[in-house]
Amino acid sequence: MSGQGPISDTPSIFDDDDVGSGRGAVRIASVAALGGLLFGYDSAVINGAVDPIQKHFGINNASLGFAVASALLGAAVGAMTAGRLADKIGRIAVMKIAAVLFFISAIGTGLAGSVWLIVLFRIIGGIGVGVASVIAPAYIAETSPARIRGRLGSLQQLAIVSGIFISLAIDYLLAHLAGGADKDLWLGLEAWRWMFLMMAIPAIIYGALAFTIPESPRYLVANHRIPEARKVLTMLLGEKNLDITIDRIQSTLAGEKKPSWSDLRRPGGGIYGIVWVGLGLSIFQQFVGINVIFYYSNVLWQAAGYDESQAFTITVITSVINIATTLIAIALIDKIGRKPLLLIGSAGMAVTLATMAIIFGTAEQVNGAPQFSDTAGWIALIAANLFVVSFGMSWGPVVWVLLGEMFPNRIRAAALGLAAAGQWAANWLITVSFPGLRNVLGLAYGFYALCAVLSFVFVWKLVHETKGLALEDMTADQMA
Question: From 162, 163, 170, 293, which residue has the greatest number of CB atoms within 10 Å?
Answer without folding.
Answer: 163
